[in-house]
Amino acid sequence: METIQNTSKDTLVEGWIDEGVKLYVWKGESGESRRESIPSSVIQFYFAVEGNCIFKFGPHYQKELASSNSFLIYNPDQEIQVEWVLPTKSQLVFIYISIEKLHKLFLSNTAELPFLAGENANRKFYEEKKISPQLMVPLNQLLNSNMPNPVSKVYNLAKAYEILGISFDVREPNIESCPFLNDEENIRKIKQAKEILVERMTSPPTLKVLSELVEINEYRLKAGFKEIYGNTVFGFLLDYKLEHSLSLLQNKNSQIHQVADELGYTNPSHYIAAFKKKYGVTPKKYLLKRE
Fold it and tell me: 122-149 pLDDT, tens per residue?
């Protein structure tokens, strides 16, 4: 069962999204520590999109997963007890897939996977490497998804399989469709543009100014934003503002006109209309439903 927990600062998606496939998506500002028992039949994928994460394997050994890096861990010999310490201001995606499920997905082709080929099939496997630009795209789309339930579960499953597919693809990447996303510097600039939008959401820069601030042309900014975040530049900003307004509305002292003002709306009616279009109810009705 997939669960979604939201606070004003943190979001956690956690649960079994398919038989033999478990997903954790963590996006937050507060640190947290969690424990997990990983069966020996499970292959573990850990992606630190932002922030370093500490993995504690028992009392005497720990390993740090650096920001923009990934772990692939498989231990067929024993169940693993692990505690992961999540840093402040972090974005992390963890995927667990059972070896049985992997065989079903790849049918008879699991022998082509390096750690399952020949005599390696029953050996421990550990790999740490930089997250590729190709992987950064679905990881960021997963972290920034605004899909409503129950569509979100289907979307999360599709993105998890896309991430696994890219992770297992040992061929040279095909970058014909969006070649500039193969450049990590361009991805960094697009992510920087997102941060500027969030910081200046009450008075955002124009597309032209934003592209100049991050030193990338407008076409690449628009195309890259759509690829990474699954939305237009200002479509993303609108979704962010409306989602942020949910946490503001949860404060019982907040008035709707105050929330609208904090989001940068000069006319509260414009905020109410945008809120109703996204969530199907007005902010006032949303508050009444919560009481």
Answer: 667 778 888 887 788 788 888 877 666 6
Predicted local distance difference test score (pLDDT) of residue 4: 41
Q: What does the block give as tokens for 156?
A: 């999360």
Contacts of 151 (CB under 8 A, 6+ apart): none
Task: Give 235-290's CATH code, choosing from 3.40.50.300, 1.10.10.60, 1.10.287.3510, 3.90.1170.20.
Answer: 1.10.10.60
Give 248-254 contacts, CB < 8 A, sequence gap 24+.
Answer: 249/283, 249/286, 249/287, 250/8, 250/290
Tokens at 175, concatenated: 């970058």
Q: What's CA 41's distance to the chain center, in Å?
A: 25
Identical fold for domains 3-168 and 235-290, yes or no, is no
| DSSP string of 106-151, one letter each residue | HTTGGGGSGGGSGGGGGS-EEEEEEPPHHHHHHHHHHHT--PPTTH
Question: What CA–CA distance (Å, rounded) separates 162 from 95?
Answer: 12
Which has more pLDDT, 209 or 171?
209
The structure tokens 């997250």 sit at 131
Q: Which fold has domain 3-168?
A: Jelly Rolls (2.60.120)
Domain ranges of the chain: 3-168, 179-230, 235-290
Rounded Cα distance between 268 and 260, Å, is 5
3-class secondary-structure state, position 19: coil
Residues 74-91 have pLDDT tens digits of 888 888 888 888 777 788
Distance, CA of 85 to CA of 168 (rounded, Å): 27
